[in-house]
Structure formats: C-alpha cells, structure tokens
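Work Package 4 report. The design task specified in the project plan requires that, given a folded chain encoded as structure tokens, an amino acid be chosen for each position. We show below one input record used in the internal validation round.
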C-alpha cells in the first residue's frame, strides 16, 4: 500500500505511540483488503464502549492509547453499558459503574466526545453526501451509507479509534463506488408502516440477501425513524452496509435484473417469529436504535396521565434527553413511571437474566435480546407497547 512521507513518519513513531499503533492497525487492514492507499476521513464513530463487551483487556488497550493519543476529526461514541448519570435507578452495580467510567474517561482524554449513542446522525455527527468517514456501529453504518450517502466500512472498535487518532482510513470496500452498487433487486408488494414493520422488512431482506447491496422498490414513504429501524435490522439479520430505496435514498446505482418479490405473508411471518408464544412481558424498551425526539414526543403523548406497571426503558442519546427535558416530555414520561436510560441500551447494558420477555418495536432489539440475553421477545408497534406497559 502506498504511504505518503507524512504517513510513513506516523507509522515509524515520529508522532507518538498511539499514532504509531493506529497506523499499524490501518496499514494491516489496508493490506488484508488490498487498499492502494489511505484516505482522509471527516468523521468517526466508535463502537465497543460498554465495559460488558470490553472487559479489562479492552480497558487496558484504551488506557494505553490515551497516554498520548488525540483525535484528529470529529469523533463520537456508541452506547456505553449504563446511563452515566442514572445508573443506580436502572439497577447497575457500583462495581460495573467504576469500570465503565474509566472507559469513558480514557476516550474523553483522547478528545472523543462521549455522546454514547448509536444515532450520531441525530445529534450533530451528521456527515453529508459523499464524505469518507469511519463508523463502527452497524445500524449507523447502514444509515450513513444508504440514507446520508456518506461512505464508510463497518469498522471495528480499534480500527475506528485508529482512524480518529490519525484522520485516515484505508481505501477499500464502501469507499469505492463500484462496491456500493446494488447486486440484487427486491420488490416489496405490500404497504410497510411503523418502525416494527420496517424492522421486520429488514429481517426478511437481510436473511434473503445476506450482505449484498440491495435495490429496494415498492416503498412509498419512510420516516427517519423507520429508516433507522430498517438500517439496524438489515445490518443485523444480513450484514449489509448499504441499501438503495427507490425514491427515498440518494445514491445512484444501476438496477440489477435479478429480482425477489416480498409479500405481506413474509412480513407477517417475520413478525410472528419475533412475537414469541409463552412470553409474559416483564420488560419494555423503546429506542433501538436510540430514540429520536419525535419518538419521545409520541411516547409522552401516549403516556400522558397513565401509569406503567412494568419496567419500561426509553434508550436515547443524552442530548436528545436534554431536549426532552426542556420540552416537558421527560416529566410526563417519568410521572407515568417509565425510565430514561440515556447513554446505553437494552443490549449493551449488563442485564442478562434480569428479564424473561422483552417487548419492543425493534427487530434488532429482538435479535440481541434473544441471542445475547436469552430473553424471549414480543415485537409490537409503539402504541401497543404503551398499552402493554399500562395493563
Ligand atoms: Fe443502538 Fe443498542 Fe440497538 S447500540 S442499535 S440501541 S442494540
């Protein structure tokens, strides 16, 4: 891989140990994937923030990088394992909290903004069409490539950090236009409505096409919330980093000849798989990916004057929560007994074994609740979730 003189200096350690280590990671990646050179990035988003996933080895690596590493571009963080302010109310132990705070401190020391959200595009890390970026949260990667038209591979935590500390990434994969073109066409022959149905559609398509870029026709309209749910689901169930939705997403692509038809039956079947029998709901969570202010406003409207009788979390970015505070939504929601879990989510928080049946509107949430936390699931639209919570 060709390196400029300045990049060679970075690799040789002239710019410090963290930059040297970062360049080693990026050059190794570039060589594995056949990149010809490094390119500049304008934005980074780092996953692998929860101490539940990182453990002591991950914390040690971050502390080492934080000795002399400093971010070169706007860099934000994926959710942590807990609400950084309100963790005790959510049942997180002090022992876990101490370690999680050390993780966030290491990132902050390097200049990473501790946003702790998987929807950076809702709170200011919002690259525009054509920008090269290095993001690692899979739902945000699919959203950035497809809905924003920015260009990013699905980075691992260490490679995203390496990009943050150097402002570089190897040029391969999603950074090359030819790899972004659709390989298969999907025709959706039914109306898709609501975050839960868009999540079910992502599951159906993801399971059929795996990680192939798809061209999706037949969707008449989609809100930002529906697109974030779809992005999370297609990435989870298939691994896609990009999709094209006719009339909705901005990228140009040749339309493939091979076509798969999707009908209402398949959407219903997917919903049935995520709406398990023999599942007595004991936990409700909204905000996977992190809730937008629009979703929180809707929840406040639905919860006005009601009382929830089950554990109910709304997971969101702290800046979004602050808007909810000033708009009066938080008060309504908390008066109803639901809880905000900012900075975290029901998948990365250490809650395995605490709940037996999760109700959510998120297909991605269902996947991980079942596979990671061994909880049964019931996917439902937002209105139904509130009804269930207040029963
Ligand atoms: Fe975000 Fe957690 Fe879902 S990171 S996409 S809320 S699993």
């Amino acid at each position: 891989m060709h390196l400029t003189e300045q990049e060679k200096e970075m690799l040789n350690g002239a710019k410090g140990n963290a930059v040297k280590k970062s360049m080693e990671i990026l050059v190794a990646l570039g060589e594995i994937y056949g990149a010809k050179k490094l390119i500049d990035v304008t934005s980074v988003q780092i996953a692998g923030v929860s101490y539940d996933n990182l453990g002591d080895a991950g914390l040690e690596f971050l502390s080492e990088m934080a000795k002399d590493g400093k971010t070169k571009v706007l860099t934000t963080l994926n959710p942590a394992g807990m609400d950084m302010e309100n963790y005790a109310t959510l049942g997180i132990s002090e022992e876990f909290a101490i370690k999680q705070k050390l993780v966030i401190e290491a990132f902050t020391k390097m200049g990473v903004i501790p946003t702790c959200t998987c929807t950076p595009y809702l709170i200011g890390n919002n690259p525009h069409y054509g920008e090269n970026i290095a993001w690692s949260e899979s739902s945000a990667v699919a959203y950035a490539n497809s809905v924003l038209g920015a260009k990013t591979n699905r980075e691992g935590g260490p490679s995203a950090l390496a990009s943050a500390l150097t402002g570089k990434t190897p040029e391969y994969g999603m950074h090359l236009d030819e790899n972004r073109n659709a390989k298969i066409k999907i025709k959706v022959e039914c109306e898709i409505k609501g975050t839960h149905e868009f999540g079910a559609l992502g599951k159906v398509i993801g399971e059929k096409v795996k990680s192939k870029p798809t061209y999706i026709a037949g969707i008449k309209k989609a809100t930002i919330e529906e697109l974030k749910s779809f992005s999370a689901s297609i990435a989870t169930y298939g691994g896609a980093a990009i999709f094209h939705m006719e009339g909705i997403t901005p990228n140009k692509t040749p339309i493939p000849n091979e076509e798969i038809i999707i009908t209402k039956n398949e959407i219903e079947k997917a919903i049935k798989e995520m709406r398990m029998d023999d599942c007595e709901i004991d936990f409700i969570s909204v905000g996977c990916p992190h809730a937008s202010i629009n979703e929180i406003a809707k929840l406040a409207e639905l919860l006005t004057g009601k009382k929830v009788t089950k554990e109910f979390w709304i997971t969101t970015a702290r800046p979004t929560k602050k808007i909810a505070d000033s708009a009066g939504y938080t008060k309504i929601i908390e008066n109803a007994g639901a809880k905000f879990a900012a900075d975290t989510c029901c998948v990365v928080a250490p809650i395995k074994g605490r709940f037996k049946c999760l109700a959510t509107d998120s297909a991605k949430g269902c996947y991980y609740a079942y596979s990671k936390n061994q909880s049964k699931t019931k996917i439902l639209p937002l209105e139904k979730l509130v009804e269930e919570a207040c029963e």
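The CA atoms of residues 45 and 268 lie 34 Å apart. Validation will be extended to a larger panel in the next phase.
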